[in-house]
Amino acid sequence: MGTLPTRRLAPLETSAIGFGAMVLSPGMYGEIDDHRAIAALRAVLDEGATLIDTADGYGPDGHNERVVGQAVRGRREEVVIATKFGFRIPDGAQAHRFPVSYTFGELAVNAEPKYVRGYAEQSLRNLDTDVIDLYYPHFPDPQVPLEETVGAVADLISDGLVRHLGLSNVTAGQLRAAHAVQPVAAVQVQWSMWQPIDPELHTAARELGVGLVAWSPLGGGFLTGTVHEVTEGDFRRHLPRFEAANLKTNYDRYAPLRGIAADLGLTPAQLALAWLLHQDEHVVPIPGSRTPAHVAENLAAARVQLHPDTLARIAQALSRFTPEGTGALLGD
To answer: What is the enclosing helix (H) or strand (E) of 74?
Structure first.
């Protein structure tokens, strides 16, 4: 059993690096079976990570949550389970659409308060647990005031079904408005070497004492330095930065940062995660991986200390690393 340094997401204490389980469902990063997925998740626990992030919309019919539930059975007390809701729209409910920079152009959610308890109860069944530690609206509903959705989660907290509220993919203004209704433990935000955090959101989180959970901290795997193409069945085929020509250009532009990692005896992934940990004492990255070896490699970055001179060298390299193709959820 390993141990990792810890961090705080407001009242929650977790390992400094968590795990994003999205990659463990088919149709995300290609095909995978449940045996491999559960082996990866158990490696996460064995290496000392205590935050596992999932969502009811990952994989078919709550698949990702069910795999997480199976993997942590008998070890539930070791882990903070975070999950999200809103994309698995109930029969008869309206799909509230909004634009994204993915090639398919839009996504749809429904976060009306009347559906929130049903989402949570289904997630509890999928996860085989009696409480969700950190519960997020997966994305603000464009047709429902976020405060109303948050109020429904606050009711779940009062009833003991949820411990803490999280927010995902929000603006600084949305964070402040939601926090006034119910204290927010953490904001999940796309943040990595090739996708900076919105400065206003970062400032708001610091002022309110809200933790930051960095999703896609390895740039969808690009920052590992090992992705040269994406194949059929891989969600990244919808991301412009992973189109063949863009991917080749981005790989070449990333060479100086791969060089810094090599100089330090780190993998590019470890450098990217360690750099992110040095950006804020309350950020917890949630990289995903499908193999125990890569899980261990990523989590080892929690123990890496970067010298100020190294951080300056990274900053200089990043100032010249402008990725080709949009990469943020709503466009750059």
So the answer is: none
